[in-house]
Specification:
Layout lengths: L1 H9 L5 E8 L2 E9 L7 E2 L5 H13 L9 H4 L13 H6 L17 H9 L18 H13 L3 H10 L8 E2 L13 E3 L4 H8 L5 H16 L1 H6 L6 E3 L1 H13 L7 H9 L6 E2 L5 E2 L7 E2 L7 E4 L4 E4 L12 E5 L3 E6 L4 E7 L1 E3 L2 H12 L7
Parallel strand pairs: 5-15
Antiparallel strand pairs: 1-2, 1-14, 3-6, 4-6, 7-8, 9-12, 10-11, 12-13, 13-14
Length: 373
């Protein structure tokens, strides 16, 4: 594992990286590479999503809302333009029908403006009929639901209800500017394999558009003001150890933060197997906030003309079918495996343009984790 990580640093793909492995509620290994110190924290990108979802699981356990509840029952104005049929479960499953929706930069710092923009969103397809990853939209909806049910700003509620009880001081969503000195800046690295992408998707790649999209992502994770806002689908910051310990609590629930049946549903029950376009049409295998490994379905990125095949089963090749977790766009990975009791987190400061190479690198690293059991 260390050799693969050092190689990524030496090759300039990851300016900095950090990993942690935990078991029985304790850290087994924690190490930093490149220009990172153990005291540094990294952007979690979409590995933030289960942390936000874990607060929603509490609200479910308290009976404040149900999976079948229409979002508009809690937030009537959200129901405009046909969104009155969107349920909480569909938001958690990325089947709610507005994957392209976004909050504008001008509105992102104001709750009222964010809510107004979400109320104006329009459906792209009938909720529940398709799966498509809602990278920057669904979890903004969850933050407004959280505020309306708890009376607290979503960042305060997450801190008070989840992070403080678990003693996870270094895991933050919404990092004030005065506490950002230990946050690693994310940079784009590597070269996009245009020919591989074109062979994979059967259409030309617009390099300029891809670079513009990448620049937008980097602006979100590196902007001090947006780091302070705490973008709920992609803007958490942490060291690897804190995330690994968060997943230990999802395995054991020693603090009783979650009602056992709700936690079992969240960590062990696949609620949608709709095809995932990003996984070449393989089942999405999503629970209410997490990805579940499930039996190996053989899905892979296959490009015969380039002699490339990368398995798409998450979390490496050797986890059990019940392993659960969530990755992040910057090369971040976080998961736990009930069969071994291990949890793992890898965070980096380099966003590799070569997605296929990044998948191969993660497969090589994460497939070694079960050896530690």
């Amino acid at each position: 594992m260390r050799d693969h990580m050092r190689r990524a640093v030496d090759d300039g793909v990851w300016p900095a990286a950090q990993f942690a492995v935990a078991r029985h509620g304790e850290i087994l290994a924690f190490e930093s590479f490149g220009d990172a110190r153990d005291s540094d924290r990294f952007c979690l990108f979409s590995a933030t999503k289960p942390i936000v979802a874990s607060l929603v699981w509490q609200l479910l356990g308290e009976g404040l809302i149900g999976l079948e509840t229409w979002v508009a029952e809690v937030w009537p104005e959200f129901g405009a333009y046909g969104k009155d049929v969107v349920t909480l479960e569909q938001v958690l499953l990325h089947t709610c029908g507005f994957p392209s929706a976004a909050i504008s930069r001008d509105a992102i710092t104001s709750r009222d403006q964010r809510a107004a923009e979400m109320e104006s969103w329009r459906l792209e397809w009938q909720p529940g009929s398709r799966f498509f990853y809602h990278g920057m939209s669904a979890h903004w909806v969850l933050t407004e639901v959280i505020h309306r049910l708890t009376g607290q700003d979503f960042r305060q509620a997450l801190r008070a209800r989840v992070l403080d009880p678990l003693g996870l001081d270094r895991l933050e969503l919404g990092v004030p500017v005065e506490r950002q000195a230990d946050l690693k800046r994310v940079t784009a690295t590597g070269t996009r394999s245009i020919d591989v992408f074109e062979a994979l998707f059967g259409q030309p790649v617009d390099e300029a558009a891809a670079e513009a999209e990448l620049a937008d992502v980097l602006a979100i994770v590196n902007d001090p003001e947006l780091r302070a806002v705490g973008v709920p689908g992609a803007g958490g910051f942490s060291d690897a150890a804190s995330v690994a310990l968060f997943y230990q609590e999802l395995l054991h629930n020693t603090t009783g933060l979650w009602r056992p049946d709700i936690l079992a549903t969240a960590t062990g029950e696949i609620r949608t197997t709709l095809p995932d376009p990003i996984r070449m049409g393989a089942p999405a295998n999503r629970s209410i906030g997490l990805v579940i490994a499930d039996p190996d379905d053989g899905a892979a990125l296959r490009i015969p003309s380039h002699d490339i095949e990368v398995p798409l089963r998450p979390f490496g090749s050797r986890v059990s079918p019940g392993a659960f977790g969530h990755g992040g766009g910057g090369g971040q990975s976080a998961w736990a495996d009930p069969a071994t009791g291990l949890s793992f987190c890898l965070v980096t400061s380099g966003m590799d343009r070569d997605v296929v190479a990044d998948l191969q690198r993660h497969l090589a690293i994460e497939s070694q984790v079960p050896e530690l059991a």
